[in-house]
Amino acid sequence: MNVLPVALWGGMVGLDAASFPQVMISRPLVAATVTGLLAGRPADGLLLGVILEAFALLILPVGAARYPESGTGAVAAAGAYLAAAPPELDAALLLAAVVFGLAWERIGGLSVHAQRRLNERLVLGWSESRRRPDLELERRHLSAMALDYLRGALVAATGAWLGTLALRWLAPRWDLGAVSPAGVLIVATAAVIGALLQLFGGWSERRLAFVLGILCGFTLLLLR
To answer: Which residues contact 150 (CB under 8 A, 6 or more apart)?
Structure first.
């Protein structure tokens, strides 16, 4: 996995989260899938993205609250997994990549907070008495967007590099087989999705859809 496309894509993902253009490419489902596509393994990226998206759905980015940056975390986790894992699906490494991605989202969140502080400095000394205040405002706005792109690129590329080193070190030492990690991922993802029920009206409003979802899930397991 080349770190350059990860950095370029991570910059776009970081920029999309708040600055521009907010077209949902910063969602883990999209961010991880495109990362997998860049590595020639979109299915693996999609699988990782679905799991991280389930966790990200519980995060409500309201106002100036601090929250994890799930987009760049998903790019970093997908890049690390695709660089460290064999061509076939490795459930143990996938579990490790999910854990790493969730942890790296916190680092991304800290970088967003630092970016906000930097943006404050960009507007210090602002005065509308300048000859062309509109051009000065535009310049500072574009500067903040450029810094946000660089921040996202740095967070994604650094995370992918560190994650690759960690997963490659862990791979020969963490022999869990295929059943245990897959079971942990299924249970954890199902628990998070179940917790989302309260966001859509709770049990009383969505009990039919919830029960049908469980029945469909068991049907798929039986068909396998």
So the answer is: 11
